[in-house]
Design goal:
Layout: H1 2-27, E1 30-31, E2 45-46, H2 50-68, H3 77-100, H4 104-107, H5 109-120, E3 127-129, E4 135-137, E5 142-145, E6 149-152, H6 153-173, H7 179-196, H8 203-223, H9 232-249, H10 254-277, H11 290-296, H12 301-319, H13 324-351
Antiparallel strand pairs: 1-2, 3-4, 5-6
Helix pairs in contact: 1-2, 1-8, 2-3, 2-8, 2-9, 3-5, 3-9, 5-6, 6-9, 6-10, 7-8, 7-9, 7-10, 7-12, 8-9, 10-12, 10-13
Length: 352
């Protein structure tokens, strides 16, 4: 059943992409290389590829919900409604930005509303596994809001920050063809296998994750270098959003997702710190990101993307066999690796 849905979604994404390509070209939603020096492509490429993932994911998920009858235990149907609404908000906002190049303060509105939407529909763990043993209860502090239910102050704030972090990690990572869709696809596959393990058996989480992986990897066929279509603003946000939600509804598998997304997330944090240090807007693009610097050091486009895939896959697979405390150690290893890479990049830039 799982692989039938994976391949169905995979093929659907492949077939939907040319349609989205034509629509975006006719609407003039196009990325023109002359608008930024750091752009690698030489010809105009349509944006809006996130619609491919949105359509193929939710069509297949809708079929699964209505035909499998396994949803309702780990994933409430109202949470899927919230996921759909939040994703649609991101895609509409992304479409507006791709077309009209919105200012940074307006770009922030849609991710914030999407994150609050999913919280409002009840997505959010009120307990986290303590890496040193036991469980951390985060449901102790709550505020009752008339007509809106309860706001679990600590838990919901963590969920909000987590989703914002995931969305902007994939947004800032979207600089090379296939980089975001491949890494997010790996993350979804890791969550699928983790949800299939007997000690965490969650069939609806596994099915949702493998459908999402199919949508990402199907789009990757067209998004692989040289890309025929780009994710666009909405696509770069929705990939991190859905993966972040999956990490939460799968029983708080945040640590596992962090291992997959560790290097990109830490690189985004490093770049933000550098931009603040240099008194630059954190939303203005530059060539400070690790993937740009690796290409500048001599690696080819596909080699750079493959290196990121390998790191994410190695740490993701390790999460399948590590207990919570060892996942924390693995993440510390990522921190050290990123610190060394950051020092090398700073020295290399200084030498130039």
């Amino acid at each position: 059943m799982y692989f039938a849905y994976f391949f169905t979604t995979f093929i659907l994404a492949i077939l939907v992409t040319p349609v989205v390509h034509i629509v975006m070209m006719r609407l003039g939603v196009i990325d023109r290389p002359k608008t930024a020096e750091r752009k690698i492509h030489k010809k105009p490429v349509p944006l809006g590829g996130g619609w491919v993932i949105f359509i193929s994911f939710f069509v297949s998920l809708g079929i699964a919900v209505t035909s499998t009858h396994i949803f309702g235990y780990d994933i409430a149907k109202k949470q899927l409604v919230g996921l759909f609404i939040g994703s649609l908000i991101l895609m509409i906002g992304g479409m507006l930005d791709d077309k009209f190049n919105l200012k940074a303060r307006y770009q922030l509105i849609f991710p914030i509303i999407a994150a609050l939407t999913i919280i409002g529909f009840g997505v959010g763990p009120h307990q986290f596994t303590n890496p040193v043993g036991g469980v951390l209860d985060l449901s102790g502090y709550k505020i009752s809001i008339d007509g809106l239910g309860n706001w679990f102050v600590i838990a919901d704030t963590i969920v909000f920050l987590w989703l914002m972090g995931m969305m902007f990690t994939t947004k800032f990572l979207d600089g090379l063809d296939g980089l975001v869709t491949g890494i997010v696809g790996i993350g979804a596959i890791i969550i699928y296998f983790l949800s299939r393990q007997p000690q965490w058996y969650q069939p609806e989480v596994a099915l949702t994750a493998i459908i999402f992986a199919g949508a990402c990897l199907g789009f990757l066929v067209w998004n692989w270098h040289p890309a025929k279509i780009f994710l666009g603003q909405g696509g770069s946000l929705i990939t991190g959003y859905i993966l972040g939600v999956l990490a939460i509804i799968s029983g708080g598998k945040v640590a596992t997702t962090l291992l997959v997304m560790g290097i990109p997330a830490l690189d985004v944090l490093r770049v933000i710190i550098m931009r603040i240090k240099n008194k630059k807007s954190i939303f203005v693009g530059d060539d400070e990101h690790l993937h740009y610097r690796l290409i500048g050091s001599g690696l080819h486009h596909r080699q750079t993307v493959a290196l990121f895939y390998t790191i994410s896959l190695v740490f993701g697979v390790s999460a399948l066999f590590l207990h919570s405390a060892y996942k924390l150690i693995a993440f510390m290893v990522l921190l050290v690796v990123m610190a060394v890479v950051g020092a090398w990049m700073t020295k290399n830039k200084t030498d130039k």
